[in-house]
């Protein structure tokens, strides 16, 4: 953790300040609820970043793990009367198990085949949720899911709970990035052949990333279920998986901070489209899918490394140029002094 503080201390400080003051700058309950939803999405996006940006895998089924986590906690607490805490723990464990099973099954797949396999898994999960009426409520969904009351049930307490979880996930991922495991992930992302020649068990590390990603999505899903209070299969399909994918790509697949920034941008755009649709009826429907698809295409074409890595590279070049100019100025002054 010390390495994380040394490397990202300023960024973490700014993040914490913005996270803490947001509910007071935007005291309206609507904006707090938007902040909560963005926080839930950020947990999923950070996990997806570990899979795509570090382990080099493509996943189009992240919303499926989100849905498994949501329904696991909802079923256990609503139908079986278990405490919310138990449901939330199960919402992390069950998706992780599904991710482990799926990861073992598709361990040998790459590229388009891997994407298609995760896409198929997403469809299977959504259809399963829709058809398993006796457990999930089917297409009608579930209602009366108990609220989380660990710190009260107000919008403000829920906001800080969700973003507290985001902070834990963020710090865990940054620490992982700077560990031996993170270095192995980056080696795999650059070249699996080279990583194998260095003695890295590629399949093992890919599976670990996939399981951690599924666990993060499940935790977010469980929190989502208890925050919303009702569930139906619709939010857990391909549309949401594409949204998560766009968040990671726009922010920068190789950057944990990029996943967070991408989530904030896409979440803000999504809410902006909702507000605009109330004024312009033509924007209602699946316009957000078109917008996100367009953003994804533009980012891949003109900024494939993502927003945060591009900004960091520009900043480092500016600093290098500034240091060079300072060195030249110092040398000029020294020459004048000697003459």
TrEMBL record:
CDD domains: TM_PBP1_LivM_like. It is a multi-pass membrane protein. It holds the Pfam family BPD_transp_2. One of its GO terms (molecular function) is branched-chain amino acid transmembrane transporter activity. The chain crosses the membrane at residues 12-31, 43-68, 80-102, 111-129, 158-177, 207-230, 242-266, 287-304. It is found in: Cell membrane. GO terms for cellular component: plasma membrane. InterPro entries: ABC_transp_permease, LivM-like. Its main location: membrane. The keyword Cell membrane applies. The keyword Membrane applies. Keywords: Cell membrane, Membrane, Transmembrane, Transmembrane helix. This is ABC transporter permease. It comes from Brevibacillus reuszeri. The lineage of its organism: Bacteria, Bacillati, Bacillota, Bacilli, Bacillales. The gene is livM.
